[in-house]
Specification:
The chain is an alpha+beta fold. It has four helices and four strands; from the N terminus they run βαβββααα. The strands form two sheets. A two-stranded antiparallel sheet has the order 1-4. A two-stranded antiparallel sheet has the order 2-3. Strand 2 and strand 3 form a beta hairpin. The protein is globular, with a radius of gyration of 12 Å. Bound molecules: FE3-S4 cluster (2 copies).
């Protein structure tokens, strides 16, 4: 899977959403999250993020490794909705992100 890391937090450019052929990039309150089971690893989202927040799971910079966990665990309560557009915007974040002071401002 691909994951979304710290540069997205409090930025949420959303350009990535338009590129994903399977609509697996879900919106939380402060960040977006890629669904680890729905993502087909096409990689289309990665180059369009203006702040370089998106990484293939094996290429996540060391300081942001916890974001792998955040992307995976974000879906523990949601499950696999099968499409972000229909699911809508969530009013919560993974605890790692929710606990952060304002980022990237
Ligand atoms: Fe975030 Fe970049 Fe997408 S800032 S919403 S990962 S385009
Ligand atoms: Fe979609 Fe990016 Fe995965 S475009 S399929 S989230 S690699």
């Amino acid at each position: 899977t691909y994951i979304i890391a710290q540069p997205c937090v409090d930025v949420k450019d959303r350009a990535c959403i338009e590129e994903c052929p399977v609509d697996c990039i879900y919106e939380g309150e402060r960040s977006l999250y890629i669904h680890p089971d729905e993502c087909v690893d096409c990689g289309a989202c990665e180059p369009v993020c203006p702040v370089e927040a998106i990484y293939y799971e094996d290429d996540v910079p060391e300081q942001w490794e916890s974001y792998y966990t955040a992307n995976v665990e974000f879906f523990e309560t949601i499950g696999s909705p099968g499409g972000a557009a229909g699911f809508g915007v969530s009013t919560f974040d993974h605890p790692i992100i929710a606990a952060l002071p304002p980022q990237n401002t």
